[in-house]
Amino acid sequence: MRSWLVLTIGQLARFVGVSIKTIRVYHDKGLLPEPERDASGYRRYRAAHAIDLIKTRTLAEAGVPLARIRDLRSATDDDFRQAVHRIDTDLSARIRELRATQRRLRRLADGRLPAIPAEVGSHLEHLPRLGFSRRWVALQKDLWLLVFATHPDAAVRVFRETVQIMSDPALRRLHLDYDHAHDLDPHDPRVDDLARRIVDATREQYGSGDLPGYGADSPIPGLVQGAVNAASPAWRRLDTLIREQLSA
């Protein structure tokens, strides 16, 4: 049945809430079919064009690249639904990230700069009594400040799992030996022995899964290890040996 609703490009733009320039870009990119023109050569849009334009605008606002939107125009209904579901999932993740950013922004606006929680402070105060050096404690403080400032949503979980690890005497011994290896020559046999023991303990506790508190795409391990490696040539070689052996 023929539609009797006829719109000019300006009316269509106002109706959908986009600019005339945007409609012309969508025409040029093949995202919106060109309508028929009247005797005067003006484009005349109908309801179907408005619906196509709303779909295109919605996908574009969700961050879908224009080339992908063009591909979706020829997708089957089932493929289109699946694609929209994936876009929705990605958008939800972006919203969570934006909300986390908003919370950090509001803390900054209120003058509440990132600080180490009390439980972290208590943990750091206890480390010297366990035999850790002042250098190690200072480094740990800086690292936890960095993690809590950059990844506050994951930091508490990672910290508590770290404390649980430290409650195991054998694992705590490895951390102590790591601390005391700071001043060793990078090629000292004790560095190689410590790397082997750390690899054995890691495989025994975690197998091939993710380390505690970290997902496969978490930036925290690299962030922490990069800071540790910069503090000592021996620690840097330890990290290299551990990575090589774990990937072997």
TrEMBL record:
InterPro entries recorded: DNA-bd_dom_put_sf (IPR009061), MerR-type_HTH_dom (IPR000551), MerR_fam (IPR047057)
Record domain HTH merR-type: where: 6-75
This protein's record includes keyword ATP-binding: no
Recorded GO MF terms: DNA binding; DNA-binding transcription factor activity
Highest taxon of source: Bacteria
Protein name, per record: DNA-binding transcriptional MerR regulator
SMART domains tied to this protein: HTH_MERR
Protein's organism: Pseudonocardia kunmingensis
Keyword annotations of the record: DNA-binding
rRNA-binding in keyword set: no
